[in-house]
Amino acid sequence: MPVEKKRRSAQVQVLPVQEAPRNYSARGIAAVLAPITRPAFRRRAPAAAQLMADWPQLAGPELAARSAPIKFAGGTLTLGCTGPTAMELQLLEPQIIARLNLALGHAMVERVRFVQQSPRLPATPQARAIRRDTKPPPGLPDGELGAALARLYQGIKTRG
């Protein structure tokens, strides 16, 4: 006599999906792009993404203040810095390579190339405080012209 197997029908219960409440407040572009681009960069070049994102921690405060990574390809790290700084850092190239490879965990950086370009660094809280404390010279005209001249004066004073 053949044995019949009873099949149980699986019942799946579908629950309604509740969406998270939307936040329509303004956000900076970096906050929107970072979650999208970071996984893509990690898949393609994880060391390059880490080098670019964590430059101040990897390089140290002195090197990070004087240079900024521009590109990393084929084991060559391109750093942007001023001319005199490039000459000085060229002499320190072996130490820079050793420090970065130690921080990354393996020998990724083989060469360092220097490009004469002033590094654009985020303003520190001290620089912002100086910017706020800078008072325009007396005798500026009232109105839009005076406000524009005051902004120009503050911009010149904070750069130099």
Give a structural overview.
By secondary structure, the protein is mainly alpha-helical. It has two domains: 29-116, 2-Layer Sandwich (GMP Synthetase, Chain A, domain 3), CATH 3.30.300; 125-159. 51% of the residues lie in helices and 12% in strands. It is built from eight helices and three strands, in the order ααααββααβαα. The chain has helices at 29-44, 46-53, 55-59, 61-66, 83-91, 93-104, 125-133, 144-159, and strands at residues 67-73, 76-81, 111-116. It has a three-stranded mixed beta sheet. A hairpin with a 2-residue loop joins strand 1 and strand 2. Helix 1 (29-44) packs antiparallel against helix 2 (46-53). It is flat, with a radius of gyration of 27 Å.
Please supply descriptive tags for the structure shown above:
mainly alpha, 160 residues, 51% helix, single chain, 3-stranded mixed β-sheet, 2 domains, GMP Synthetase, Chain A, domain 3
